[in-house]
Amino acid sequence: MAEIDEDRADALFHALADRTRRDILRRVLAGEHSVSALAEKYDMSFAAVQKHVAVLEKAGLIVKRRDGRQQMASGDVEAVRSVSSMLDEIEQIWRGRIARIDDILAAEVTDNP
């Protein structure tokens, strides 16, 4: 994986490592929300919610746009798919290692019945 891909992976998984950010992402993937409306859903300050949204935006998981005085946030499905793709890649590496262990164990059983 290229360095830029590793940096992107770090940003994506950092953003998803927080419960509130995952919840915000779920909401904006279901539909566009104003950041003000999102802030009403959480027991934290508006500024704290803005910071969570900023982390998600920096990671590329959400997109913001202005609508008058409001900042509207929506989820980027392609970014979520890229996270899924990264996890699939890791899973394939793990499955390959398990398959090799299975082959070694099967060979040992055949050699030492």
From TrEMBL:
The keyword Signal does not apply. Residues 1-95 form the HTH arsR-type domain. Keywords: DNA-binding. Pfam families: HTH_20 (PF12840). InterPro entries: ArsR-like_HTH, HTH_ArsR_DNA-bd_dom, WH-like_DNA-bd_sf, WH_DNA-bd_sf. The keyword DNA-binding applies. SMART domains: HTH_ARSR (SM00418). It comes from the Bacteria. GO terms for molecular function: DNA binding; DNA-binding transcription factor activity. This is DNA-binding transcriptional ArsR family regulator.
